[in-house]
Structure formats: structure tokens, C-alpha cells
């Protein structure tokens, strides 16, 4: 076979195979694939997994990264480390009604370490860690698959033997290059899934280390069983799926260590057979180990429940529409359809999308829907595999199929909607762990085909082609995750009915200043989902800026009607009403926004602007002061306070506020400029000059800065410098108000002085 590559270690491997041949069939016997020493196999897997995702290393923060990283205060040094244990993944208090209850403190801790080492929000370090984690996990998969496919066997010296080196290499490569993993690797938020998978696998390998084989049979180490439970707990603190490893360890113990025939065991239980002890349950300590796993799992879940609180996370209908269906039958049909789509993503990961909610997958509402075929196909395959896993006379086949199904199904259970409602329809990241089961089943299917095929080389070339296609798909998909624009646009062809896709494309365009194109996508988002309040709010904002105030008001009024506690929409509605000079309504809208979001500095700022327009100066100053208390770095609020006090002749108070503001925001040139104006009027020329020059150094192209410095010099009697800065100001902005008149006055004065001097 051309795919067998002999090397110095190959004879030792073959001898090991012959020693174990009497125990059970060897899966590798019929597999036409590369045979490499363990260290070489791991190096190949590491290299290929790196090549798949290496181009994502310098990508931006995209999609959920903004909320989980950039806007997450738990990453910053000023937040006590202890807060991580009481906050969710997004930085909200777990006790809050708005919390998603996603409790992943260890993942957030790694983000915090990334942030501290990088000295800020620089995405390269975050991406590099994700790539390294995936490579590490893929390498561990070689050992994991060697156990799952070849069994747990030891040499006389107690060293674990790899009885399926070719099969384990193939399965590990399939895992390493699977395109569905791109979201976990290229999306920084996927760190949770990667860390969970790492400790998940370490827990499994730790559990395997608990067993040694000697002349008297299997013995086990309680220490390693407990280590496995602890590693499972760590996996769960990275992401909730991690707890499922304890169940998989129990399944592995029963099937591989104790070699239990599940069908036979079920029969004995049904008929109350007294020979259960002969099945090995008590003799080999299985019940004791399962008890340890169950107690550990129950303890972990109880502690998490106590920290999280009893309230379930609050999700909306757009997040998971099937879970809000009134009919149990409709819910069941759609849940099963979602399962079939997840299975299809594993089989054919070509159509990938960053978000599958908001109409991307319309609900199945009757059995006449043709998509029912997908459910039938899924259960036909599953039932066939389950029957083979239970009823086959071949113990080797039973073991591999049961383990494959176990690793496919059990890690997926937390995302299945069976135990609690989840906040998504489909999420590619949650099938990172279930893909282990897919790789087992694929590899076993390949071995069966190889056994029947006459031209094994053609079959091997076909599998190699699948791997190469997956590598190319990973590279392409990783490049799409490098920026939000590419990521969002890539989803338009996959989920054209997804309102969130159009919303995100529009938001990305708006951030880049392309308002006309953004309007088009926001309108499409509202058309697809007439209750999409965030799209209405953003569209209303753009229309407001384009002075299309009446349509903006209609959209924002509809948004707050649909979601009365939508504080941002209330504030924006107030801004529009203020522009329409409906001041009482604007004031009411602002206060409604503050009622629903008490700590809302931007709303206090806009309320202050309204009061200033109404000449309610004290109310304006109080509103701006509230804004700066809630957000001390709110430069606009500080500036408006200084300017209002300056304009009303309260120079001493304006100076005090200006100095206070500069202590908090020492590098803000607009504050320097405002305070310099106040100091100039107070005839503190030297200090005013210093601040003007500092502001100009920070922003040398501001015409008003040069113009006002020229006025200062004019008052101060430094006419040459005044002339210089008037000219710079006019060069930067020839239409600067008042500057030309002041410059002409200065020129006339200079001419008079020259005449007198002459």
C-alpha cells in the first residue's frame, strides 16, 4: 500500500499489534493510510491545524468580541479579580435580570491576562493564543482517538499502547481541519470553547491514566479519577459544556474498561438476573467510580447553581423562535430540524454563518413542509447506528459506534433545548466538541469501506481530497473572520432572510460613514423583522443626522412602543423632538430614558443641551454635572459647562470647572482650549497662552485655536504674534467667523503704529 510509510519505529508498532491481536480486531488492518511514529503524527497534525487558521492571527475584534472583550470591564486592572467569579461572560452581574448566565470566569481571566500583557486592546495576542490552543487540542486528539478507536491497552511496563496509529492520525486530521471550527479559532470569543475542549480532553486522558493492567487484571487509581473530576470542573468554568465529560468518562469506563454489552445488561436488568456481578460492575469497581463521577458532577452543578442564582437566563423570541412556539409538537419538530442542520454542518461545512437567528431558518409549522425529510434522514441514520451499537455481535464495532455516538450526542446536550432554553438557533461553536464523535464515525466508516473496496488507493485519495478541500475552506473562512465587513457580507448569501445579518452589514457601513448604503440594509432588516427595534433605532439615528426628522420620529416612536424599556431609543426620540422644537415632549422622552437606565450619562448630556436651549441654565448645569459624575471622562459635558459659565459671565466658576475637568482628562485639547479662553478673559495671559499652545500642539489644524490665541495676543499687546496666528487661522479656514475682521483691525493698528514711528 503506497500510503504505508515504514520507519525505524514501525517494527515495534507491528510487534505491539501482534501481541494484542488475540484480544480484539485491529481497526488499522483495513485502513489504507499513513503510518507514522506518534511524535511525527502529532507534528503533522499540529502543522496542518496551524496552516488552516494562521491567516486569522492579525484579524480585528469582530462581532461578539466587542461585548465580551472591548466593552467588558472585567478585563481591566481596576476591576478586582474577585468580581470575575460573580459576573457572567459579558461582564454583567449574574444576579442581574439581563444576564445570560453564561458563567465562564476562567475564560475571562485569560482575556484579562491577554489584555494586561498586550497593554491594551490589541487583537493579535488574542488571536495567537486561540490558534495555539486549537493546535494543542488537535495534537491531544491523536492520543484521544488512539484510545477511542484502538482501545485502552497497556504494555507489561504499564505504558499505554497505540493500537490504531493510522486511524487515530486520520481522525485527528479530520478534527484539525474541520471548517466548522473556524468560529472558535478565528473568533476570539471562541476561546471559551477552546479552553473547555482542552480541559475536557485532559479530563478524559486523566481518567484513562487511572487504569493500569497487570497479571491480576485492571486496577485503578482514585487519585486520577479525582483529578479527572477536577479537570472536568475547570472545563465547565471555561464553558458549560465541559461538565459533560464526566458522563462520557462513565460511558468509556463501562464500554472500554469493563467491556459491558449494553443490550445484555438491559436484558439482565429487565429480567432481574442475579448474575449482574458477573458483568463486572462490582468486581472492577465501576459502580464506585461512577458514584465518584456523579457526586463530583452534582457538587459542581450545585456550586454553579448557587453562584448563578435560581433564575434562568432571559432570551427573546428572535434568539430562539422555536422555543417560544405554543405547540409542543411544533417545538419538537423544529428542535429536531435544528439537530439535522447541525449534523449537516458536520457532514458538509460549506454554508457557514456567524449568526443563524432572526428568520435565517423559518419555523416548520406543519408536517407538509418538505424539510421534514431532513428529520427523517437524521433519525433513520441515528436509529441505524444505535441498533448497530447495541445489537452487533462484533464487540469492537459496538464499542466504537457507541463511543462515536456518545461523543457526538452527549457534549451537544446543553445546546439541545431539552433541559433549558438556549439563546440561539444554531451556533457553529457548540459543535466543536461533538465533532469528535463525527470524526470517530467517519474514520470507522472509512475503515469499513476500505475493507470492502478492491481499489483502496482510490478511496484513500478521495479522503485525502476531502482533507485538502477542508483545509482550503478553513483558510477561506478564516480570512472572512478577519474583519467585520467580510464576515457580515459572507453571511448575506448563506442567510439572506436573517435580519441580523442585514443589520450588522448596515452598522458596519454606518461606522465607516457610508450612510446611504447603511440605510438600505437597515430598511431591509426592518422589513424582514418588523419588530427589530435596534435596526429601527439605528435607522432613526441616521435619518436624524440627515435631517429627515419626521420619518426618524416615526421609527423611534415605533421602537419604544414595541419595547417600552428601550432607553437608547427614548433618548434618540428626545433628540429628534428637540430638533423639531417640541421641547416638552423631548424632556419627557429624556426622563423616560433615564427611568429605564438610571446610569445614562449621554442622556443627561442631551437633557442639559435641551435646558440650555430653553435658557434654564441651572438645570442645564445640573444635568451636565450628573453626566460627569456618571462618566468622569465625558468631555462634551465638561466643555458645555465651561462654555455656559463663560457665556453667563461666571468666569471664576468656569475656571474652577475647567481645572477640575483637566485633572480628570489631562490630554483633552478641547478642554484646554475652553479653559484658555476663560483665563484670557480673566487677564491671566501667561497661563492662557500656555494652554492655547498645548492645545495647538495636540491639534495643529484647528483654525479656531489659532484664531483665539491671536485674539489673546491682540489683547495682550503682542501684535506680531497675533498677526502670525491670525494668518495661520485664515489659511486653515478663510471663512472663520470674526477672524478676518479682527485681522483687518490688527493690520490697521500696525499701519498706524508704523506711520507714528515714521
UniProtKB/TrEMBL annotation:
PROSITE patterns per UniProt: TPR (PS50005), TPR_REGION (PS50293)
Superkingdom per UniProt: Eukaryota
Keyword Ribonucleoprotein: no
Pfam entry (one): TMTC_DUF1736
Membrane-spanning parts: 33-54, 131-151, 188-208, 220-237, 243-266, 286-305, 372-391, 403-424, 430-449, 458-476
E.C. number(s) listed in UniProt: 2.4.1.109
Pathway: Protein modification; protein glycosylation
GO biological process: endoplasmic reticulum unfolded protein response
All residue ranges annotated as the DUF1736 domain in the record: 311-383
Subcellular location, record wording: Endoplasmic reticulum; Membrane
Protein name: dolichyl-phosphate-mannose--protein mannosyltransferase
Species, as recorded: Orthonyx spaldingii
